[in-house]
Each structure stands twice: as C-alpha cells, then as structure tokens.
Amino acid sequence: MLQGSAGDVLEDDPVGRLKVFVYELPSKYNKKILQKDSRCLTHMFAAEIFMHRFLLSSPVRTIDPEEADWFYTPVYTTCDLAPNGHPLPLKSPRMMRSAIQLIASNWPYWNRSEGADHLFVVPHDFGACFHHLHNLLFVKFLLSCLSCNKQSWFQEEIAIERGILALLQRATLVQTFGQRNHVCLKKGSIIIPPYAPPQNMQAHLIPPSTPRSIFVYFRGLFYDVGNDPEGGYARGARASVWENFKDNPLFDISTEHPITYYEDMQRAVFCLCPLDAIPWEEIGVFVAEKDVPKLDTILTSIPPDVILRKQRLLANPSMKKAMSFPQPAQPGDAFHQILNGMARKLPHPRNTYLERGEKILNWTAGPVDDSKPW
Questions:
Q1: Of 153, 265, 339, 358, which sits most exposed with the smallest number of CB within 10 A?
Q2: What angle (nearest 5°) sits at the alpha carbon of residue 256, between those of residues 253 and 258?
Q3: How many helices (H) and strands (E) does the chain have?
C-alpha cells in the first residue's frame, strides 16, 4: 500500500522475499504502556500495536539480525491516552529518541545506516511530526480534557513547525497521514489505513444491494473554537463544508456520531475525508480547499460510470482486505501490504550504508525538550 493509486494493492506473497529483525526493547516502550491503558487496542492508531504482534509471529521474522533486510523498533508512541481516550503524544519525541539511543548503543545495525534500513510505525495524525503543546494550551487541556476534542492538541501548525523527528529522517515510516506535498509526509513512506476493529466492521455490514440513499456523508467536527477562534481548523475546509452545505438536502453532515455510523457510510455515494487522508486517486475524488464551496457542483457533475467504477474498486475483496487489520492476519491484508511495500524497496540502494566514520543525522536537532530524558 505504497503511496499511489488503487492499483498499488499488492497481491504478491512477501514471504521469502524479505527478513525482518524485531528489536527486543524493554517493556516500558510497548507492553507496559498498553497494560496501563488497554483502550489503545481499539483506537484508530492501534496499528502500531498490531503490527508488532503480527511481526513477532510472522514467517518473515528472523532472530538473526545478520541476515535481516529490515529492522523494526516496537515503540507505542500513541498509547499515552487522555481521559477521553484520544492519544496525547506529549512525550512521543523523547520516547522515540530514547528507543533509538538504546538500539544504537546495544546493536551495531542502526549506526551502519543511521536508520536507512529501519522501519517505524508512526500512526499519529501527522506521522513523525511529533509535537508538544504550548504551555498555555496544555494548562487548558488539563482543565478541560474530559470535554476537549482530538484536534485541540493535534495542531497542524505545530506539527509543520516541528517537522519529522530528525533521527527518523533516513528511516522508512509507516503512517496513516498521507497528504501529498506536506512536511510530515516523507518520500518513500508506506501509507496505511487507520485501524478499525475488525469485529466492528463485520458487525455492521449491510447487503451489497442496499440502495445508496445518501449522496454526501460526513460525521465530525467543523470548528475548533476553543483553540482556533479564527477558523483555521483543518485549514478551514471543514468550516467551509458546514457553512456552504449544512442546509443542502444532498449533504448528510453533522457533528453527531450515530449508532448507525458504519451502516450510513455504506449507504453513501460519497464520504467526505477532509485533508486528504486517502492516498489513492482511483477510489477517491480530490477537491482543492479553495473549491470546497463548489463541492456540490463538483460531485454531481461526476459521470455515473466513473462513480460506479470507484464503487466497484472499493467493493473488490482485495481492496477491502488490503484496508483491514484482521486477527489473525490473512494474506493480502494491511499487514501484508506493509510487508510488500518493504519487499519492493529491496535491494536497498547503495547509499543506505555509510562509510566508516560518516555521519548524516544531527542528534541535537529539534526542540530542546526532545533531548530531555524519557
């Protein structure tokens, strides 16, 4: 599932084409965090946990690092949850930096490539652009976290200012954030769908013959008044959708999250996904933010045969499987898409491995707080 089109669903078998060494880190980087809060297993960033579990029992795993093509570092950076269940990655940069320092000190493999043959799952809203809150915002969060919304502390401006963590600049990143031409999307990243509990999806399937009675569907926030009074939340795209189409009968949009959410999406012709989270042109329709006020005209002008072709692609069993994380894993699922993406990067290019004494990464780059002990 490399960044690209729907044709990038990779159906070849990765077994036998790559070997992955899984670092055994102290449990404070993964298992103990999960023990503290099991809600991590069901939130949309849980791929970092299930990818770790998958690799531990996968036939591509090797216990001999000398024969490994890839090195995987299991760090659960989105499992520090607020009371309302949303990830709060305040310590994520320090946690990731600490893990990298550990593997660099105890194994020779990081230092020979400075991470160019290493894989990290970073499923935050903005991938490896980990970011802290400003002090005032953090105080506000502490005072009102039971009612605050996710985007209150996942601010894009802060993410852009931080950029991708310096120590991950050479690594391959597996992330849900797929917005093209963005600071937080590194070239060569492997884009995955957000995690959705497989049991939830299966429990809400509707017959394929069900009429699509909803033209445009969206559930979520349109404004973040508390932290963005000027209306720049999601760069104004969500606010524009609401202001232009709240009374349009073709648009079923709301902040409410009904119990029929999964069924409603299946009954819709179009589901809005602001900020370009889906990277496949063949199954999506991309609309520039400046054109959001014309969204109704744009969508109603799409020929029916084009819509049907996209729907057939989405209904294709291979596509459905590629966007899911079943337990146990199945050939062709999202786990195997990641492996195929890794396999297709082999052999590693010549510049993967450094000359003796050569250094590229700057260990002191980034905010001062990132260098504090974790």
A1: 358
A2: 100
A3: 13, 8
